[in-house]
Amino acid sequence: MDAEQTGSWRRYVWPMIVILVAGGIYALTRTGGRAELLTLDRLRQYREKWQRAGVRSYELVATVSGAQRGEYRIRVVDGEIMSATFDGKPLDKSRAAYWTVPGLFGMLERELRNASGRGTWPAGVSVQIYGSFDRETGRPIWWQRVVSGGRGTVTVQIVEFRPLVGEGETRDSSRDTADR
Question: Domains in the chain and their CATH numbers?
Fold first, then answer.
């Protein structure tokens, strides 16, 4: 490799390393140090915990920032979507399904498969997924897809989550407790 090729290589590698490290630091500061680098196995454990928790009725608000932006509000009763909006506008149930808790797990699984090279990212692009999950139920609280070069970085945060108890009653559980 001649000096010109070496300089070109360094020009791209160092910025990617800096962006990945900065993304990791950002992930840790956004969750009070509770974020972890996700794997498919760890995600499976959280999904199983969610299934054991048996929460089938809830309301949640998810915000998305980065390469994509918006706010999703979803109401689920006995596992069925009752209402859904994106930035205050009605959202059809097929799109809303991605923003239910089971849908969020599916989204994270697809993200992890894509990040592992079995997906749609071009060769040479590095992708890492950081996340934080509720200690009691295993539901996602926050995650971030960090992409080398900064393009495609997305952060999803569940800013409100309320299990529904009985006929329309709610028990506030928006206080998030992360599992380590």
Answer: 3-170 (2.50.20)
